Description:
Chain A is mainly beta. Chain A has 1 helix and 28 strands.
Amino acid sequence: MQSASSWSIRNxxxxxxVPLVIMTATIVFSSSANAAGTVxxxxxxxxxxxxxxxxxxxxxxxxxxxxxxxxDELLNVTVATxxxxxxxxxxxxxxxxxxxxxxxxxxxxxAFDLSTTTAIGGDQFDPATTSIVIDTNNxxxxxxxxxxxxxxxxxxxxxxxxxxxxxxxxxxxxxxTVDLDRGDLDLTAVARTGTGAPGTxxxxxxxxxxxxxxxxxxxxxxxxxxxxxQTATMTFVKSASVLDPFGGSKSVPxxxxxxxxxxxxxxxxxxxxxxxxxxxxxNTTYQxxxxxxxxxPMTDAPDADAGLFASNAVTVQLGSVxxxxxxxxxxxxxxx
Amino acid sequence: MRRLLLFITMMAxxxxxxxxxxxxxxxVFLEKTVADGSGxxxxxxxxxxxxxxxxxxxFIVNYRNAGDAPASNFVVTNPLPAAVAFExxxxxxxxxxxxxxxxxxxxxxxxxxxxxxxxxxxxEDVTHLRWSLKQAIPAGAKGKLSFRGIVx
Lengths: 336, 152
């Protein structure tokens, strides 16, 4: 937009009689380091000044008219997933979080409408979006009850030029999904002022009173996040070997029976708080201090190590065990 | 009509006083690349109705000696608006990168970085442009100066 006073001799004569100093361009400007560029509404003012000497040897000064151009608003936005890879989930789990970064790459403050799409081909399930949440405390991590739920019209995502905000999408994973099923989700951010082909003009709607024009991004941005189901199952095998007092393997009074408990975890998930327990059989006596895990001896007392003998039962706390791992526990009893 | 007459009357002493008067006028155009439909594109200059960061501007300064005596030592200074980065197109101009304190051609100017190192000045460092005409402008003569900028 331009407003320039028309050129005339009369204008210059008026300036001539007014004491003049060299004028600098009027700077109505905040930061030129802005990646998004000059902020919408900024006025670019240009004036040229001439100095010369008149025939009497007197210095004279003349100023040109001032041209003012208002910088219009460029509407641009990008969305990028902030997860390093698919987010691991379990079947039926609610409030599973995908993270995105929404950046206003335009040069005006702008509100963006957010939406998700889950009907995407090539995956195994559609996560059910339950809410879109803005990272209100800017810590990059979803904080239930602290970060505020995005609601169009009442809790908008409004970003200054160059500003980024983390946005979380919370979904419920369908039950019935199995290990390694993937569910994709697209988050879309749309400039509320308008979208369309680059160059589309939204007259008069730019920040600072100018027009708004759709930038190279089309004033909408989208990126894809994904969930992947990771489950784990455990198989458990118990075996026994007997050593009789005579060096053989007969089960007679006085024979020592070594029980071996093997827990095999399979799948891509992790089993948490895994514990192996076994009750000492009737007519046998537990041999104190014989618990081992992965070949290492464990104490019987309820202490820091994982082994425990109490109430005539052996327990070993295995903690979290990832798929593909095996835990072997042994203990010994004597046949009465 | 009466108002106009009054105006001229008021101006009359100044007219008599000024033996020469150089008038300056400043205009700006937006440079646009337009596809002509056959795969080629051409550049046009138009009124800057819509200006956004990255747009190319062409600034033109017209001068005219409207008086009846020559104007000597004629120097035109154009401070660059802060939101505009210099893009060349002003071969005969001297430039300043420090608000008009020092002047020279761009390759002759150096910028001190925050870390204390010196580097060659770049077009976007330019703050002012200056044209110094060697010869006096005769009465009635006119000319045109121009430079290019890009909206930051």
